[in-house]
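Recall that a protein's primary structure is simply its ordered list of amino acids. Everything else, from secondary elements to tertiary packing, is in principle encoded there. The following example makes that idea concrete.
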Amino acid sequence: MELQFNLKAYYKTSADSAPAKEAVAAFFDEANRTILTKGAPEGQGAKVSGWEFGADRIKFVLESGRYVRVHDAALRLKKQLAGILGKEYKIGIRGIEVEEFEILLPSEKELKVGKIPYVKCMENIPGGIRLLLELGEAEMKNRVPDRILTLLEDKIEAAQYGAKAEHWNLLWQSEPKEHSFKEDPTQAMLKEGWLKRGASRGQWIHGPQSTRIFRTFEKIVLEELLEPLGYREMIFPKLVPWEVWTKSGHAKGVYPEIYYVCPPATRDPEYWEEVIDYYKVTHEVPTSLIKEKIGDPIGGMCYAQCPPFWVYVAGETLPNEEVPIRVFDRSGTSHRYESGGIHGIERVDEFHRIEILWLGTKEQVVKAANELHERYMHIFNDILDIEWRKAKVTPWFMAQEGLLGLAEGNVVGTTDYEACLPYRGADGEWLEFQNVSINGDKYPKGFNVKLQSGEEIWSGCSGVGLERWAAVFLAQKGLEPKNWPEEFRKRVGKMPKGIRFL
């Protein structure tokens, strides 16, 4: 099946168009050979396949493929036809009224889709999907049909995405190691009193012991990576408004995974008196009543740590000598609603991370990524002594930007670092615990950042997840310091005592 558009509509006229029948027929016939073919390969323009005259309208049927789509064709025709009718017959065109707008979209997979704006009917048919749109001239001018088509094409590609092998390509793997420790590290930490579950879902309270491990990881990253490579510390916001996610591209699909932030409608105590009195009487928090008194979501808690940074440079032109810019943030928690996927300390709703970010020319960004890879290899091999591997992948957020594929020379994408979890068995799960991403011009374009020379700006980022590092290291090395690599023990020092309970 080829992509097809079919439109049945009419031009609303200010008077009976019968006197202009011959002129209109000649115009449509000529348009099929001229204005409806502009910008399209030969034989692939739009076509008026029928027309009919009424007392106050000119009905028409338009057909097209991917080029000169019917909504664009209808608007092209209107402009030209209005000139003919107005000049020769004193008849005006008051607008376009849509009777039926159909799109036939090729697809090898069936889609299950909920409500989509302006789509009144969607059905899977042999070889594709049939859509019936309910819209008018304003929506056609605003290119709503094109956005609906893009949305559906994204959904089709997403459905096929997970099964494509070219999105994971092994780059390097360490030699297998003997692992004497076979326990789930989270359960071992709970048993030894290193941590306790927090009051919220997917949240942990870390005791002195696991906190020392986290701080040691931070120290290693600072001393072995960030300081030698010239990264400067910043503090990024942890409440992210819609404006930021719109420009970063996350607004396309972040909704199932964020914790939303809604401000109170007012700070007036009298407005909240009902809520306060309810709690004082019942000792229960009236969440349904609170819902009525808060405003719309203004955004959410930090989901991906780097987007808020870009407000700092948005709309700016950087001097040539200022790049590459290398910064990092470790100022607070990140939050993701993991739904049923929470498990131990490695899959949580609230987590701690050092976000590393750099921007500059393409060459500078690629060089910075390579330097990070070298430093990470040193840390994982010489200090943590873990069994790990790395693979080039293309995350879905990059696929949405048209950055698919792992072909040689395509440097845009993510390198994932994965480590084995011995308690899962010899052929068990490998956990992704680190990444390095080259994001191309995605963020500089989204936030309108320019370079004095006019050269294209690129960026990259790398997230050091402290929970993931701990999950991997302790799964392979256990909780006994005597079993840890000497280089790591040097940096940890004497482990602090935990807190005892009766």
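The CA atoms of residues 420 and 427 lie 9 Å apart. The first helix runs from residue 21 to 31.
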